[in-house]
Structures are given as C-alpha cells and as structure tokens.
Amino acid sequence: MHRLAIVRRLEAVGFRAWPAASIQYDGSWQVRLTAGHPSKRLNSVNPLDPSDHGDVETRVERAAQRFSAYGRPLIFRQSPLAPPQLDAYFDAKGWRRFDETTVMMADIRKLDLDATLDHLPVRELGRYVDANIQVHGRDKSIKPGLTEVISSIRPSSGWFVIEEPGAGPVATALCVHDSDMAGIFEVATRSDRRNKGYGREVVTAALRWARMRGAEQAWLQVGTTNEAAMDLYDRFGFEEIYRYDYRQAPDNSADE
C-alpha cells in the first residue's frame, strides 16, 4: 500500500521545483504544458486523486485537444495518485507504458557529506545553463527553454558545476530547497569524464548546500534503467518511496 500522503507531498514539491509554463485542471487532473521545453514532466497530464475517474474517455479527448494546440503529443504521467481505472482504460486502448521512474528520499541529517571538496553554487544562470547543455550533450537550441524553466523556479535553488582544469564543465546538478525538502535535479557527468567520482562530488556539494540552508530530507527522481545513477544514490542512502511511468497512445510519438 502506497503512503499517499508522502506521495502527494513529493508530487507537490516536484511541480514547484520543475514548473510548467501552463497549468490547467480537469477535475484533479493537472494538465502541464511548456512550449519551450520538451521534458515529459513539463508536458503531461498528471492525475492526482485515485478516486477521480469519471467520464474518462471525454476527458482524455479534451486533454488531447489541448496538447495538439501546443504541438505536443498527449502523455499521461501515472503516479500512485492516478486512478487504477485510468490505467485499465489505457490498457484496453493499447496505450504503451514507458520510462518508469523511481522517486527516492534520504535523510540529509544522517549523511556523511564531509569527505569531499566543497563547491559553492554558481551565481550566473547563463553559465549554469551553458554547462548543463554541454555536460548533458544537449542541442544548444534548448537554451532559451531551459533558461525559462530554471528562472521560473520559485523556491531557492542552487546551480552546481564541477569543472576540470583544461577540460571545462564535467558535472552539473540543480538543487531546489523547498521548506525542509531538497530536490536534486539535472545530475549529469560529461560522457568522457564518467567513473571519476564527479557525479558523487556534485551531488555531495548540492546536499551540503541544502543541509546548511536547513533542509532535512532530500529527494530525487531517476529512471529505473539508469543503473549507474541508482548505484550512486544507493550509496548516499536514498530509498525508494514510489514509482511512476508514462502512458501514450500507440499512434502518438513523445519527445524523449
């Protein structure tokens, strides 16, 4: 049985930490759309009440019209808050299930975060975004959209960049401090600098910053097939709280 109270809280801090440009509601279904960024979390329908499953077919079609107006494929993000009847509807229609993600938490107060060099967050958003794009290997065309998303984050956020002399940025992370919670996002190590400890270094820096600001619990989301990241977070003491995945009609195509 899922602990729905903590799921609801993590979903709420997650929405604040990675804000969509447009948010509308159909009952308790949160419709998130962002023209400038293709992230599925920013472009998906998020059902938030297991009991809200009335008139499914009409509501799914209504959501499809909204997504079509944005030029986005219709995607549902199915957490434990989604009604089982909605998944049954998708199963009957042949909707595919993809990109399963685990949401994990760790008690920052219990973590040993002193065995690494300290790195302060960078101050210039443009510098962080450029490093993020380089480290992730993303197309530079995403810069305006990524800048808009990060600049729209309302809770305090720290932008972390690890640089190697002569090599430039090699690892990045984004930490969002929201009350006693700290969300870790956008963790990446440049492909030619992996397995050198930079991932652990940048996550440690982010967690230390959050703990110094009063955060008590850290949380993050990671794809269940990302074995390297899962191993890293396991060594920090993160434990799974719940999982979510995405559903999409067979005749649709999502931006990955």
Automatic annotation (TrEMBL):
Gene3D superfamilies: 3.40.630.30. Keywords: Acyltransferase, Transferase. It comes from the Bacteria. Residues 120-256 form the N-acetyltransferase domain. SUPFAM superfamilies: Acyl-CoA N-acyltransferases (Nat). It holds the Pfam family Rv0428c_C. GO terms for molecular function: acyltransferase activity, transferring groups other than amino-acyl groups. InterPro entries: Acyl_CoA_acyltransferase, Bact_Acetyltransf, GNAT_dom, Rv0428c-like_C. This is GNAT family N-acetyltransferase. It comes from Flavimaribacter sediminis.
